[in-house]
Amino acid sequence: MSYSVLYTDEKTEGKLIEERGFGGDSLRWREVYLLAKYLRLEYGYGRNKIRNIISYNCESEIKGFNAFKYKSSIDTVVKAAMKKNEYVIDKDVFITDTEISKIQTIKNFFLQKVALVVLFMVKRGRGDVFKLSEVNFISPLFPRNVSKRKIRIALSELQRMKFLKRASETSLVPTYRSDEGLKIIEIYNVGQALNLVNEYVKFCGGELKFCRRCKQSFHPTTTSHVLCDECKRKSYKKRHEVYNKKRRSKNV
Ligand SMILES: [Zn+2]
User: Taking the complete model, does pTM exceed 0.70, yes or no?
Assistant: First the structure.
């Protein structure tokens, strides 16, 4: 079974609008949309019934409402609310500590995030594979939208590292999946899915980088920060020594 998911707060808002009505002097489209979505998902009403309820509510709740003027706009909004969500979640998704520790062996934070998102995509569906066509859905899961090209490159990098392997011409399967273990991240709805990368960053204590020299992870303070504190100290010391040596040899 596949179904659309209401964000938790959308559900609360929708219920509130149903209870208190639209009210006010003018129509707010966000409210129309939320109520339509709520009526569809909570009661399973069809498009015509929802349109009729909304028109009726508008007429009785909004002062001087002109049904004729708003007919086609209401139609459009109801139609939008009838659309299924892209992020269908067939079942609750759990990411385990075993999976997280495997992902954390990847010495590149962006690749870790992609690996996590791919795992979520695989676990949320019915099959056990990631379809390459789903690349389109990955990008919005990142707080700052990432290009499809960058994700494709990450996917082939993960294949090269044997974290992903080909299941068919059009699908990949993660080798780091492991349903046994402690549930670390739980995803029940779209809102949580869209927040997955953020949650992971929080879990790691902030954005991570891997030292260019020793590959140790560290929390960068600026974007140009590429060495861990120890390597930075060493490289500074070394530069200082070289400088001193030069200076001494000049003085002699
Ligand atoms: Zn280092």
Answer: no
Question: Which of 65-69, 123-127, 134-138, 203-207 has the highest average model confidence (pLDDT)?
Answer: 203-207
- Which alpha helices (H) appear in the chain, and where do they start and end? 8-20, 29-43, 47-61, 67-82, 97-103, 109-124, 135-138, 148-160, 190-194, 196-203, 229-251
For the record, the structure tokens of 205 come out as: 């204590």
pLDDT of residue 113: 96
Q: Check: CB of residue 56 under 8 Å from CB of residue 74.
A: no
Domain boundaries along the sequence of the chain = 8-82, 93-207, 217-251
Exposure of 245 by Cβ count < 10 A (0-12 exposed, 13-18 middle, 19+ buried)?
A: exposed
Interval 209-221: pLDDT, tens: 999 999 999 998 8
The alpha carbon of 209 and the centre of ligand 1 are apart by a number of angstroms equal to 10
Cα–Cα distance for residue pair 3/5, rounded to 1 Å: 6
Q: Tell me how crowded residue 151 is: count the other CB atoms within 10 A of its CB.
A: 19
User: Distance from the CA of 232 to the center of ligand 1, in angstroms?
Assistant: 7
Q: Which of 32, 81, 84 is nearest to 53 (CA)?
A: 32
- CATH fold of 93-207, please? Arc Repressor Mutant, subunit A (1.10.10)
> How many Å lie between the centroid of ligand 1 and the Cα of residue 117?
28
211: left (phi over 0), alpha (psi -120 to 50) or beta: beta
